[in-house]
């Protein structure tokens, strides 16, 4: 979303990303909340993550990066960006101690536990380079992924709608949805497609409800994802070289 060409006003943010990487979560929040931003596509296959200009924004050379246009501040780490956007969009709700506490606890769980372990599946040879070790590590991680989803299924049992928090929709929902999406798609040569949906009816309801939201669809379409989003998802119709969550 590049706004506003008519008035010449700068968008609020600049989002750096590549198709179906962690920037997808951030884009879903921006689109859902109607926050003006412009996209900066990073060519991962051509070494864009190691370009000096990008490394100045995020020294780790990872996506996503969200730059505040007004101050030029570069935000990185998915969880930190989502917390920033949550406080901007829903400051009153998340400023309340109990609501903020729940958001922080589960946001850190998604970021530090689920996403971190999923990255081990994506980049297993970095951590287990010896022959056979990578597959054993993935096999050890996958039951943990299912256990994490079962824990999140229990969180949805508050009976106040399909969202993770009983207060209503939050940045947690698209984050979880994208993590579940990537579990089933990446790494391309060994994805985890067999999730026990019959044991996750609340999460199925959340994922189905989220996929119907216009802002979520706009974000997906912008990254070439035009089919199924979260349950038995489709790959984006764009260059997949080097893509992971």
From TrEMBL:
Protein name, UniProt field: Glutathione S-transferase family protein
Species for this entry: Halomonas rhizosphaerae
Every GST N-terminal domain range: 11-93
Domain GST C-terminal: 96-237
Pfam families assigned: GST_C_2, GST_N
